[in-house]
Design brief:
The complex is a heterodimer.
Chain A: H1 4-17, H2 19-22, E1 28-30, H3 34-38, E2 51-57, H4 61-68, E3 74-77, E4 80-86, E5 93-99, E6 109-112, E7 119-122, E8 134-136, E9 139-141, H5 146-155, H6 160-174, H7 179-190, H8 194-207, H9 223-234
Parallel strand pairs in A: 2-5
Antiparallel strand pairs in A: 1-2, 3-4, 4-5, 6-7, 8-9
Chain B: H1 3-27, H2 35-44, E1 46-51, H3 54-62, E2 79-82, H4 85-88, E3 95-97, E4 110-115
The chains are: A alpha+beta, B alpha+beta.
Chain lengths: 237, 128
């Protein structure tokens, strides 16, 4: 198991290597590393996974490919070019995911077929909008607003161990959200179909009942906060 | 479609399958299949859960506390009583239960649940 500091260094080194891509307007760091980056000084104390996800709006796909040509230290996985592998241990894997802001159904998913950078485009990622960038060690990291990311984490279809970890990432986000961000999450949830609102609530109930994991937010300590959010979301109907 | 695109399409189909399961679960939410959601919801709104002796559970029922109907959806049925902390203090022989579905909670037949004092779930939300 890597220590938090080791992991933070590798995460930031990877994002520095990906800086040409991160400079493309609209591209966001998404997924489980966002709570790490939102910690004070991007402390990255939550060992959630050994990779980082970058969300590519489909309108920026061409620009992202151009920018990838400038990236050094990582290369596309031969059989999965939407994943870039590190050339050495100082970096971590990068996954590219597609964002289609026009995709109305968060449950939908489609393939943007491309020989250089094919993407799985997830409807749930359309809930994301850019938040204030995180500035750390000279890097300017585009991250989503926590409310959208929270709902995306609570909506994405998932199973077993990976699912539990994703839920703990949602808890990590929740611990960093203030009242305004929670109100924003409520408003976003209110705009979802009834079935999706139910899915969010169902995943919140799971979050209060899963066992803790080393290096991840403690679900027991977060139970009251989750119960409060669930009550607020139930009030939406 | 390129071979790589076809590979991603297979993953997309798996994800669509999970989405279809979620839709099915939603349609089933008010039926037996939805009992797990209702049980999890009840536990989420509990700050503490205690295992009761059957006689103590009977005493609480006699006092007018009502068992949550979701307990009857399981076999064997569970008696799940939401009671205030003040009343819990007077319950004899109670044992604390870890609030976790994998932690032995499901082996208990008679349970008292103490709600969060800070949380007010909407009345009847989550009920069939």
């Amino acid at each position: 198991m890597l220590t938090g500091m080791n992991f933070r260094g590798r995460l930031l080194a990877t994002l520095r290597a990906m800086e040409p891509v991160l400079e493309v307007p609209g591209i966001l760091v998404v997924g489980s590393e966002v709570p790490n980056l939102l910690e004070q000084d991007a402390a990255s104390t939550l060992v959630v996974s050994q990779d980082v996800d970058l969300g590519i709006p489909i309108g920026s796909h061409g620009a992202a490919k151009d920018a990838l040509a400038k990236v050094r230290g990582l290369h596309p996985a031969p059989e999965e070019p939407s994943v870039w592998l590190p050339d050495h241990e100082g970096l971590i894997e990068v996954n590219f995911l597609g964002i289609d802001p026009e995709l109305g159904d968060p449950g939908e998913v489609w393939v943007l077929d491309d020989p250089i950078l094919p993407l799985l485009v997830y409807g749930a990622l359309s809930l994301l909008s850019a938040g204030p960038p995180v500035e750390v060690e000279g890097l300017r990291l585009p991250v989503p607003r926590p409310a959208g990311l929270l709902l995306e984490k609570l909506l994405t279809a998932r199973t077993a161990e990976k699912g539990d970890r994703d839920l703990l990432v949602a808890l990590g986000l929740l611990t960093q959200m203030d009242g305004a961000a929670l109100a924003e999450a409520e408003a976003l949830c209110a705009g979802l179909q009834a079935e999706l609102r139910h899915a969010v609530r169902a995943n919140l109930t799971l979050l209060t009942l899963i066992p803790g994991r080393l290096g991840m937010p403690d679900p027991t300590a977060g139970r009251e906060m989750v119960a409060t959010l669930l009550a607020r979301l139930e009030a939406l109907g | 479609m390129t071979p790589l695109g076809a590979k991603l399409e297979r993953r997309a189909r798996r994800i669509r399958g999970l989405t279809a399961v979620r839709r099915w679960e939603y349609r089933q939410r008010d039926l037996a299949q939805g009992a797990w959601y209702r049980l999890r919801r009840l536990l989420t709104f509990a700050a503490e859960v205690w295992a009761l002796e059957p006689a103590e559970a009977d005493r609480l029922l006699a006092e007018g506390f009502v068992a949550d109907p979701v307990g009857q959806a399981f076999e064997p049925p569970r008696v799940l009583l939401v009671i205030p902390r003040e009343r819990l203090l007077r319950v004899a022989g109670k044992r604390p239960v870890v609030i976790c579905l994998d932690c032995g909670l499901l082996a208990e037949r008679w349970l008292a649940l103490v709600p969060w004092s800070s949380v007010s779930p909407p009345k009847d939300a989550g009920r069939p």
